[in-house]
Known about the structure:
This is DNA replication protein. This protein is an alpha+beta fold. It is 43% helix and 12% strand.
Amino acid sequence: MANRRMFSKDVVETDKFLNMPLTSQALYFHLGMEADDDGFIASPKKVQRAVGCTEGDLKHLASCGYIIPFENGVIVIADWSVNNWIRPDRKRDTRFPELLRILNINNGVYYLGGSCQPHDNQLPAVSHTEDRLGKDSIELNKDNINKDNILPSVRTSDSETGIYMILNDGSFYDVSAEKLAMWKQAYPELDVERELYRMASWCDANPTKRKTRRGIEKFINGWLIRSQKEQLSSSEKGTDKNGTETIQNPEEDPERISDIQEVWERLKREGRV
């Protein structure tokens, strides 16, 4: 493992990254330092415990798409090739070639495609070298590559947004681009993406209240309905120069209505009306 690693501003200075808890951000940097030359970390929980972070931070990185976990406990940093480029003559091959082979890469970002065995012409793009695996090595690991080796919840495609919500069974609900577009149209007053990230953070922080896969979309719609009502309610109210709320239509002020009724009753008693 190299003594030096790089981190791209295109990854770590985005709103998405900076909106994560500081502990999750710190864990990302430490995982980057521990990764091999292909971005794999064999013992991520060991790193997490060593730096004083929680398992929730590890899951948060997965839910936000910064790492891809596998069922054998290994993870890979999704943006590894955006952050790092290692000279071929100095690069050491990963100990996990069977996992590397099931990864695709797009603009320097690893993702899990629909097929578990990418075409051979995809391998150079992932490895930065011309000869990552020999034929014998590929045949040796062929039987170990199957869909059970990876978490279904982190398979991504062009139709997904990279927003993930952890469910009560530990898997993830990935928000599709189609659902995001629909919710944006249904709730035009809201920053829907921001609300979805808030939901993902809430689910991560409340393990006993996480939703089922069948119930997650009902939860999302309920959250968005409440948020839009709050947004509309706050926009109907103004604030005075001291920052206190004022009612834009005084006739709708309950206290003012009460005062008017008292005056009316007094005038009736005095015989003026």
